Amino acid sequence: MKNTKIRAVRITPIAFRDGPLLNASGIHEPWALRSIVEVETSDGRTGISETYGDEPMVKVLQQAASLLEGLSPFELNVMEARVRATIRPGKAGDGSVQFELAPGSHTAKNADKVISAMEVAMLDLQGQMLGLPICDLLGGAVRSEVPYSAYLFYKYAEHADKPYPPDAWGEAVTPAQVVQQARTMVEQYGFRSIKLKGGVFPPEQEIAAMKALRAAFPDLPLRLDPNANWSLATSIAAAKELDDLLEYYEDPTPGQDGMAELAKHCRMPLATNMVVTTMEEFRRNASTHAVKILLSDHHYWGGLRATAALARMCSVFDMGMSMHSNSHLGISLMAMTHAAAAIPNLTYACDTHYPWQEEEVIRGGRIQFHGGSVKVPGEPGLGVQIDPVQLARLHQQYLDCGVRNRNDLAQMRKYDPGFAGVSPRY
Ligand code: GKR
Ligand code: MG
């Protein structure tokens, strides 16, 4: 084991079908991008991970690949130091489209994102070598299954470009259609809490949807996430209607100062994956204690161990923990599940975009949910392996689809050429 060394690191960008899902920035493109990382060792093992697939991210992953050569899979600190010394934050004009609503697109987080991708693959190797699941390397599972929430999106029935037949979900723009989407998702997956991605339609319409969800699901916790597309005044006014409805109020208004002012006007807790995305922002929020729930995400917080450390900080500062997601496949879902299994104070059901994806890159096809949860795998490492045929197929889709950077605003202009994309819109 001592002599096992990393021999090569392979980065494969992939594209998979994604629905016409609406959000504050615009609408999802027909193809979502991810990178698949494979780390090979001298004794013939392969550790894997999944991360963002936008062009600047693929470039920095490729740049970091050779930094791991010759390391033992246990040398995580050396890997981190090498990546920090080499990988620089992106600059304007590097091709990235930086979304306020998707912290994973921020090239300022390049080093943390690369460290995370390499760490997960190295932990997968460590687990394989020791015969232990990754959650055991993180201190052991405190739960045998990880609950996720039904992540509802306003959506159109079909993509403007019509690159393939429409999905089975249909349109969801009215409160009744949102409730129907929730019923289908809850029936198919067994979810026990519900989140609606808001910031799309006028707040009255989204509040009406939350009320309709409450009537249809009297016992399930509800969340609404307008991705900072509501002004402070709008968020304060909406709080009066939402206070008795929501488990938490996620990023209604921009900036820590806005959230801090809003906190004085509502009883429900505020949650974020937008205004606390770095340790500096964590420190600032700790001084006002305005946001009470942090949606963690190992992909941009520097990995699974960094997420566990962040959880400790949350418990010191009396903050709750949930988990954020972006469009992803099963390798990420497994990494999220190991992290959530091993973090005692991650007590809110995690977000996942998984129900919106139809394709897979792992052997055995799609991961199953039972009662809204994913079973924590007991197999060594991550517990999933790449299906090489699917990887080649999804890579070919990447080569063919032409998308290189997620751009929800440009996609929205295909439906509405006058769409301004101004934020906050309401
Ligand atoms: O997939 O459209 C989306 C989401 O809006 C995503 O980009 C956000 O990062 O899910 C995210 C969130 O909770 O803010
Ligand atoms: Mg959010």
Uncertain spans: none
Task: Say what the CATH topology of the largest domain is.
Answer: TIM Barrel
Name of the CATH architecture of the largest domain = Alpha-Beta Barrel
Task: Report how far the terminal alpha carbons are from each other.
Answer: 58 Å
Strand content: 15-25%
Strand-and-helix sequence, N→C?
A: EEEEEHHHHEEHEHEHEHEHEHHEHEHH
- Rounded mean pLDDT score: 96
Q: Biggest sheet, open or closed, and with what strands and sense?
A: 7 strands, parallel
How do the strands line up in the largest sheet?
7-8-9-10-11-12-13
List its traits:
36% helix, binds magnesium ion, TIM Barrel, 426 residues, single chain, alpha/beta, binds D-glucarate, 7-stranded parallel β-sheet
